[in-house]
Every structure is written in structure tokens, then in C-alpha cells.
Request: fold
Amino acid sequence: MMRLRKNIILLALLLTGFAGDVFGGPKSDLPDVINNKIKEYTGKSEYNITNTTISDGSIVRVKGNIIVNGTLTITGATLLVEGNLRIKNGATVNVEEGAIVMVTGVVESNGHANLSNDSDFAAIGGLTGSNNFILDVADNSMGNECNTYLPGAGYADREVLALITNELTEILESANIDVPEALVSITPLPIELTYFIARQTSNGVKFEWQTASEKDNDYFTIEYSTDALNFSELATVSGAGTSTEIINYEYNYSTNATGVMYYRLRQTDYDGQTECSDIVALSLAGHQTANVSNIDIKIYPNPATDYVQINGDGIVSVEFVNASGRVLSAAGLQASYSISNLPQGVNYVIIHTTQGYAIRQFIKH
Reply:
């Protein structure tokens, strides 16, 4: 009888010792403090956090969902969550000065998120479960001091997302951490020039160019030359900084010059690095009509393989050009046009009409 009573007491003591683990909140899967370290957690689908502080330039990558049951604080550090961030009732996420937090999934929250100045917070999938969610932004102002992308909470500017993604990508690459595919599709390439074309008008020359994406693009410089070797500055046009949208540019230049002129487009980043387009040659002589973008022109088939047909009123001639504006072939009005000598992918055609000229694009398979 005494032995049985001792065993019962021993069992009760053991259960009491494990009560916090068995009946209490989940055990934290991340340390209480992570400072000045590169840490990757990739072995579980979900990670519970009770109270964790990430600081002092640490870079933490969690491949899975994070469930915050207490307080998660990131200050002067980087946190990449390749999954969802779930903020439980009463839990808090503090994104403090110098911190970057990127969630490739969604923020599921009924708790708090406190954002300080000079911090970045983004969730590609946006916010869900926001009935009791509180988002506190320092000074009640986003400005340039606190960048937030959180659709569902009123912050859905894709350019802000691109800025945060670009900064995060540089940090990950410097730490030799693979950049998730979800971020690669967001980060703009360095200036992606679709085309650069120079055309004579009745008053001089009109320059037109298009970008598919831009990254840290400060400005463009149009340069000219009479020998295709020595170039001088003609004009500058402000760039869009960082963008993932298609942007069209144009610049009109008045001149009475005649003869062959050579032009190129130089792009300059915020850090002073430059890159030039291919050179475009233009023979300045006689009268040329201006570009009329609303001319009704139809090109088919598109995509095409061997030939295209171009229909429209008053067509006089056509020129097939590459992305830099270099003429690859030209012809007068025809029933169809061979494209056998054009490269595969996106090509451009300049259609000269009695009203003016128009620029159209098509795809060659």
C-alpha cells in the first residue's frame, strides 16, 4: 500500500513538471535572442514563436509558416518567411528601425503589428483575418521612412513591394542565401530597353523609346554623332527610378541639320553607372510626317512564322526594325511581307502612311 502511494505521488510530480509542455502554450522553435548571425530554419513546416528578438544585423530565413503566440521583435535585422505569418490573439510583431520583414505568403492576424520609422514590412499574399488586426505605423505616415506592402490593410503599392524586394535581394545575395522564386519575379531587371527609335519630323527629330522594367534608373541621355565614333550630349530625360511597368518615353528635338546623323541612348543609374543602347542612323533630308499612334493598322497573323499581312488606309511603305531601331528590311505596299530574315521573339514594324507613320510590334515564332 505504501509503495502504491509513493508511485502515485511520483507520477503526480512528473506530470506537474511536464504540465507546461503538455497543457501550456507551444514551445518556441526559435531562440529567444538571435543577434549578429545568419540563421536558416528549413526542417519544419511550421515554427512556433513565444518571445523572440532578432537584432544586430542578423539575417534569418524561415522556410515554413511562423506562428507568433507572444512577441516577435525584429530590429536592425532581416527576416524572410517563405510561408505565412500567423499572429495569434494578443500576439505582437514589432518591426523596428532598420528592420526588413518579407513574407512570401499571407499575414493571418488577429493581433498587433507595430512598424517603426526606417523599416520595411511586406507580405506578397496580403492580409487575412483582419477583424481584430491592429497596424500601428510610426508617425501615422508612410513616406520614405516606413515602406509597407500589405494588401488588405490599405497598403498595396507594387512599386513599394519592388523597392523592398530589391533591398532584400541584395542582402540575401551578399549572405549567399538563395533568393526565393517568389521574389525573383518581383525584382526588376536592370533597365530593360524594349526599343529606341529616331524619326525625322517636319520640325526636326522625334526620339521614342520604351522600357519593360527599370531598376535605380536616374535618367536617360540622348547622344548624337556625325561619325558614329565621337558622341555629344543632346538632351536628358528623367528616368522612373524602379518600376516593373511598361513605360513609354519621347523627346522632340528641333533641328535644320541635313545628312546622316547617329544617335544612341545612354542610361545612368543612381550610383553613376551607365549603359548605352545600339546606335541608330538617320538620314536627315526632306520633309517627314510625324508619328500618329492612332492610325488604324492591323498586323496578322500575330504571332507569325513566315510572313505577315499589314492592312490599313494609305500605307506607302513599311520598315522592319530590331529593338534598337536598326532597319532589317523595308518594302513598299505589298499583299504580304516575308519575315524569314527577322529574329525570333518581339519585332517592330514602322508603317509609313499618307497620314504619318505608326510603330507596331509583333512576335515571330
About this structure: Residues 2-22 form the longest helix (21 residues).
